[in-house]
Amino acid sequence: MIDASGKVVIPGLIDAHRHTDFTLVQGLFSELGGGELLEEALALYHTAESTLGDSFFEAAWQLACLRQLTHGVTTVNAMDFTPALGAEAIGESGLRGVIGPELADFLTPASADDQLTAARRFIETHHDTYEGRVTASIAPGGEAGCSRRLWEGVAELRADYPELRLHTHLYDSAEADTMAAGSGADDPLDLLDRYGLLDERTLLTHLLHADRDDARRIADAGAHVLHCPTVYSYFQAGERTWFPLPALQRFGANVVIGLDDPFWFDSWDLVQEAKHARLLSNFEYGAQRWSSYDLLRMLTIDAARALGLDDRVGSVEPGKRADLVVIDVDTPRHQPYSNLPSVLTNTVTAGDIETVVVDGEVLVEDRAVESMDVERVREAATRQRERLQAHTGWETSLGGSTPPDGSILRRVSARPLLRAMKQYGRGVVTRHTW
């Protein structure tokens, strides 16, 4: 029995788009510009991958699970380069997760065929494990990172595993049409459509440079939109700083919320992300784009529908899997109130989350994590973070962080990145290009 007197019980929160395995770099990049950040982050990732080994990424996944639990996130939809480690971490922590190996042969040294083989192996090994709490997805990185051969292989995977979600980035660059042309398509949506990848099982992330016609095509296909507002407002990435929300709403597309990569904004609070989504959309398009209740649905049942889990989670009702969160609103910071959805989306933060239940199991009780060894996770994270800094030369203090002299990018092979740029006729990598 859980005493929730004077408190609020809502379905567990669902983070609809997450990159997880670089969790340990929090704060390193916060003061960099967007282009410089991405250059340094890609290079640093390859450094960690080649020199620090699985222990670095294991610690990252464990810390991510701990943070998700303490922020009331019960389900995460992740796209990562270390999915097997993620499946184990999510499963052992008691969380629910949809995980796809990120397929991007222009961004990593592995060939398209090798990545596709690994993805198939991951699906066969990890899909529908941990009593069904861990499931697989097919996760091509997007029009910018994938060759034509890789898209062909993704289509083959989709045909062989039709029950899986396809999770990808789309239109997050002003050059999206040009990049799609490299695979023989008119634009990114045409690229997906040509390979039979655009339907109600498709999850499209960002859409920063999509337009009204794109929104209509997405809605007509029944695809779902994963909106990550904060990272783009933080760096004002591109001339267009927002995605076509009014058109997506006009045509009835399902739009839900994700936190994206922790190295961008260092954020884990999904409720605050929804609040930012509303504030930024109001700033761009005018007030009352979303009601408070709309935002709660986006974080719960609408996100569950996007992931194909709405028959199991996303609402508190008989017959579902008992993923829920107890929130303490019986405090002077919240009382008195009259509009409960407004309280939950405007003033509640992760610190108000008292109890977290997944699949009927209590994972957090009275704000204490029960399903993980918190001190062991923190010690491993600290140790691996210190290894990263010692190896790369990043200096940190309470006042910020300082990259090593000279770009890390010059000391790590960037051949996959250069190959991607040449594929699309843009010549060389320059600062602020990405």
TrEMBL record:
**Gene3D superfamilies referenced in this protein's UniProt entry, alphabetically:** Metal-dependent hydrolases, Urease, subunit C, domain 1
What positions does the domain Amidohydrolase-related occupy? 8-362
Q: Which organism is it from?
A: Candidatus Halobonum tyrrellensis G22
Query: What is the protein's name according to its record?
Result: Cytosine deaminase-like metal-dependent hydrolase
Tell me the GO molecular function terms.
Answer: hydrolase activity, acting on carbon-nitrogen (but not peptide) bonds
Q: Which UniProt keywords apply?
A: Hydrolase
Tell me the segments the record calls region Disordered.
388-408
Q: What is the lineage of its organism?
A: Archaea, Methanobacteriati, Methanobacteriota, Stenosarchaea group, Halobacteria
- Which InterPro entries does the record match to this protein? Amidohydro-rel (IPR006680), Metal-dep_hydrolase_composite (IPR011059), Metal_Hydrolase (IPR032466), MTA/SAH_deaminase (IPR050287)
